[in-house]
Amino acid sequence: MSIKMNKKWLLISFFPALAGIFPLVASADTEEDGRLWLNFSAQGDTPVERWRWYAEIQPRWREEGEQFDQLIIRPAVNYKLTDASSIWLGYAHVTSHPVNRATVDENRLWQQYIYNFSPINGVAITSRTRLEQRWLENGEDTGYRLRQTLRLARPFDSAPSLSAVVSDEIFINLNSTDWGARSGFDQNRLFAGFSYAITGKTKVEMGYLNQYVRTSTNDRMNHVLSTSFSINFK
Q: How far apart are CA 208 and CA 23, in angstroms?
């Protein structure tokens, strides 16, 4: 491998390695929980060239999967800039069920840019940059949050339909709000698992997700069994 290639690998590896430090430096007061997240998504073409639709629904459970925690409904449209990149505009409705508190509804607008790098030694590399505008019913401020994801996927030579997947996503609050958001680092999600293409249009992905969340009291580390099902209506 050339020196140039080594430098590429260092850059690709740096971001998830750095973000993964957050769980390692968790304080002794960090609260931990086992959780279960499901994600069902679908996407397809529209009558307008280069425009596509997308929709997903995410139910989540806490307390080792015994208590319902959150439901996210997230539709969007995207425009294909090139074969490797696209821009997105979407909405999300988030219903949260806090422990011993009333249900909280959140509305979000979000925009994102996705870029698929040329594979390196068979590894598919995807970058996703998302900006969110958030409104919660228990406050009046608008919260702005930046989310940056880097995802690596490598098919197995002996089973091309099966891929090993590693990804990391870091969340940064761009401002503080009257409903509790604090400017700066918000959370980090580090995922490792497998993706299997059931058919040319359907895929399932399953693995372990470590979610480290900064809070106003004790920080939280969630150990999540994450499963995603997706359908691509090409």
A: 14
What does the block give as tokens for 217? Answer: 């009291």
Pairing of strands 31-45, 220-233: parallel
The total of other beta-carbon atoms located within 10 Å of residue 224's CB is 21
The band of 25, judged by pLDDT with boundaries at 50, 70 and 90, is: low
pLDDT of residue 23: 52
Exposure of 219 in the CB half-sphere (CA atoms within 13 A): 18
Q: Encode the chain in three state secondary structure.
A: CCHHHHHHHHHHHHHHHHHCHHHHCCCCCCEEEEEEEEEEEEEEECCCCCEEEEEEEEEEEECCCCEEEEEEEEEEEEEECCCCEEEEEEEEEEEECCCCCCCEEEEEEEEEEEEEEEEECCEEEEEEEEEEEEEECCCCCCEEEEEEEEEEEEEECCEEEEEEEEEEEEEEECCCCCCCCCCEEEEEEEEEEEEEECCCCEEEEEEEEEEEECCCCCCEEEEEEEEEEEEEEC
This prediction has a pTM of 0.88
> Within 13 Å, how many C-alpha atoms sit on residue 234's CB side?
4
Q: What is the pLDDT of residues 178-197, one digit of tens each?
A: 999 999 999 999 999 999 99
Residue 5 confidence (pLDDT) above 80: no
The encoded tokens of residue 173 equal 């609050």
Q: Confidence band (pLDDT; 50, 70, 90) for 27?
A: low
